[in-house]
Amino acid sequence: MDDIKKLGAQLQAARLAAGMTRTALAQVAGVYYQTISNIEEGTTVPMPYTLSRLAKALPQAGLAAWREPVLLYHRQVRTQRRQRSTQRSLQRDPAQAPAERRPPSRPQPTLSIGEICRRAKAAGMTYGDYVDKMRRGEV
Predict the structure, then answer these.
(1) What is the CATH code of the structural domain delimited by 4-72?
(2) What angle, 0 to 180 degrees and rounded to 10, lies between the N-to-C axes of helices 48-57 and 33-41?
């Protein structure tokens, strides 16, 4: 969002005009101090619910006018993330997928935890080491 600095400057001016510190505004609005700081410095775009809380805490600031641009920004970000995620999943080679996502190459017998513990103890191993070896097919 290009004019995020304008939003931050507007918030800071309204906060100072109300004679509030960042901490006081954060307490009144029910957000973290760092959130106020990041918005004022222009390093982050507030979430829509954060913006509405700030608008209620400082009604004279006119922050409600920023609702639509902030919503639009977050919709665009979500759309971009979804597109990137879809592209990554399409590019991923099934052979390189994590083991838990790959279908097993052969049916695995289901063992109870007690049975695995007994087998691990008989082999002189810890439960975790035995399970790791089972996953690698070494047992």
Answers:
(1) 1.10.260.40
(2) 100
**Six token digits for residue 1:** 């969002």
Enumerate the H helices of the chain as residue ranges: 4-17, 22-29, 33-41, 48-57, 67-91, 113-122, 127-136
Q: Which residues contact 52 (CB under 8 A, 6 or more apart)?
A: 64, 67
92, two tokens: 């991923």
The rounded distance, in Å, linking the Cα atoms of 125 and 100 is: 23
Q: CA torsion 21→23→28→32, rounded to 10°? A: 140
pLDDT score at 86: 75
Distance of CA 108 to the CA centre of its chain: 35
For residue 5, pLDDT over 60 is answered with yes
Domain positions in the chain are 4-72, 97-139
Confidence (pTM): 0.55
